[in-house]
Amino acid sequence: MILYPICSSSRGNCLYISGKRGGILVDAGFGVRNLFTYLKNAQISPIGIKSIFITHEHIDHTLGLYSITKNLCVSIFSSKETLKCLVSKGRIHPSSKLYEIDSKKVCVCGLEIGAFKTPHDCARSLGFCIFDGQKKLSICTDAGHITDEMKQNLKGSTLVFLESNYDRQMLLNSHYPYYIKKRIESKLGHLSNDDATEFIKYLIDHNVKKFILGHLSQNNNTPEVAFQTATSRLLKSKLKINQDYSLNIAPVRNPDKIYEV
Ligand SMILES: [Zn+2]
Ligand SMILES: [Zn+2]
Which segments of 135-237 are extended strands (E)? Predict the structure, then answer.
């Protein structure tokens, strides 16, 4: 299985994952023209994309959804509540087929995909676990806190793509209005660098070794700060990078790496 993080930040999220029989996108928070350019740069044909899995309706995850569904014949998978919301906002072209993915796993492109709930201030957000028969890729962003359901689903993954949205001090010092700071920090907001580090520590203890941090805030975080927070904190627990685990940061834009899961 291949993971190609195309963009990941508070401004836009889109991941490409391919199995044996074509590829899927997780989220579509990116304009179709740029998306096609980045796929072409990685020698991936957009026509091979059969399905889009949407975590939730926020615009950083659905900005390009209408234009992508207008240009490609794809099926859309998400929670019932998210699909209802996206249809009512006119964000999906009518030609697309819609499928709920709440409790049962679905099979597309030789991949088996299951969903789990994430605590976030939207209709009903999801994270996804993607199996190719041997490996398991888990994607967990836009979560206000770490839940037991998230822990159960991410345990034993080959690779975890995890939100590390903000540095607490940077958020505190930022120019954001008080109510937005409170929203980000709330139990239905986003995972901080500290939260992500705590979760990584738990997951290392539960057979996960590879991590990619994503959905970084462009104002209240930097790749260096997120990386440094995690690696230095984990070292205090005697967990050494490139020995006990690997850690990468997803690109905000301009994708630079394809991961073999
Ligand atoms: Zn988001
Ligand atoms: Zn969101």
Answer: 136-140, 159-163, 210-214
pLDDT along the chain (261 residues), means of 10: 95 94 94 92 93 98 96 96 98 96 89 97 98 97 98 98 98 96 97 98 98 97 98 98 97 90 96
pTM: 0.97
CB 114 within 8 A of CB 138: no
Which residues, 6+ apart, have CB-to-CB distance to 196 below 8 Å?
Answer: 162, 163, 164, 213, 226, 230
Q: Which CATH number fits domain 2-254: 3.90.1150.10, 3.30.70.270, 3.30.450.20, 3.60.15.10?
A: 3.60.15.10
* E-assigned strand segments in 48-202: 49-53, 75-78, 97-100, 106-108, 111-118, 125-131, 136-140, 159-163
Q: Report the separation in Å between the CA atom of 236 and the middle of ligand 2, taken as the mean of its atom positions.
A: 31
> How many Å lie between the centroid of ligand 1 and the Cα of residue 243?
31
Q: What is the pLDDT of residue 30?
A: 87
Q: Distance from the CA of 58 to the center of ligand 2, in angstroms?
A: 5
Sign of CA pseudo-dihedral 173, 176, 177, 178: negative
d(CA 71, CA 172): 42
Nearest listed ligand to the Cα of residue 183: 2
Ligand that lies nearest to the alpha carbon of residue 126, given by its number in the listed order: 2
Ligand 2 midpoint to CA 144 (Å): 10
> Who's near 94: CB < 8 A, 6+ residues apart?
none
Domain boundaries, the chain: 2-254
Distance 190 CA to ligand 2 centre (A): 8
